[in-house]
Amino acid sequence: MQEIINSLLGLDADNLTIWQMSLRAVVVYIAGLAMVRIGEKRFLGKSSAFDVLLSIIIGSVLSRAINGSAAFFPTLGASIILVAMHWLFAAIAFRNDNFATLIKGKERLLIRDGEIQWSAMRKSHIGERDLLGALRSQAKLTDVNKVQEARLERNGEISVIPRDGSSS
After folding, report:
1. What fold characterizes domain 107-162?
2. The YetF C-terminal domain covers which part of the protein (predicted)?
3. Which single residue of 32, 52, 123, 158 could bond 134 by disulfide (Cβ 3.0 to 4.6 Å)?
4. From residue 123, how far is each of 27, 46, 58, 63, 75 by CA, in Å?
5. pLDDT at residue 47, as a whole number
6. Region of residue 120 (phi > 0: left; psi between -120 and 50: alpha; otherwise: beta)
7. pLDDT digits (tens, 9 = 90+) for 110-137
């Protein structure tokens, strides 16, 4: 059985055939899909830098399993370890705010009671036009004075809470 798997996946081959690379792609795709399911919705939903980094690393590592530039099964194993570590870090972050801030960052208050917090804007590298665009798209507001609070969230989105009774 081992010889059949070796032959099909080209595990001992110096040069992979199109069929071996194609079969590797299928196996890696299925394994990657299983890993994303184990990681639950974090990959696709709440995209913080924490999640994006794992996506980039997993893509890079798994591509090596397809093109044969790294050993096939150890590469899949390393990917599984990365997903498990991501899951563990997310679980710890859920229970510990300090750890969550360490790996995910923290939100910044950009507008408080209609006043732009310029220090936070500078630290976040957000221009006034970008902030106004977020007010329009997130809260349908064109006037900063009608905003109770706007924050740059940990996932990079700007959330807006209008003042009571505010509309553009």
Report:
1. CRO Repressor (3.30.240)
2. 95-164
3. 158
4. 44, 22, 30, 36, 39
5. 67
6. alpha
7. 999 999 999 999 999 999 999 999 999 9
pTM of the model: 0.69
Lookup result for tokens 């299928």: 26
Q: How many residues does the chain have?
A: 168
HEC assignment per residue over the chain: CHHHHHHHHCCCCCCCCHHHHHHHHHHHHHHHHHHHHHCHHHCCCCCCHHHHHHHHHHHHHHHHHHHCCCCHHHHHHHHHHHHHHHHHHHHHHHHCHHHHHHHHCCCEEEEECCEECHHHHHHHCCCHHHHHHHHHHHHCCCCHHHEEEEEECCCCCEEEEECCCCCC
Q: Is residue 109 within 8 Å of 120, Cβ to Cβ?
A: yes
Reading the block at residue 148, the tokens are 């109770």
Answer yes or no: are the C-beta atoms of 158 and 110 closer than 8 Å.
yes
Q: Is-contact 75 61, C-beta < 8 A? A: yes
Q: Give per-residue burial for 39-55: e unless 16+ CB within 10 Å, then b.
A: beebbeeeebebbeebb
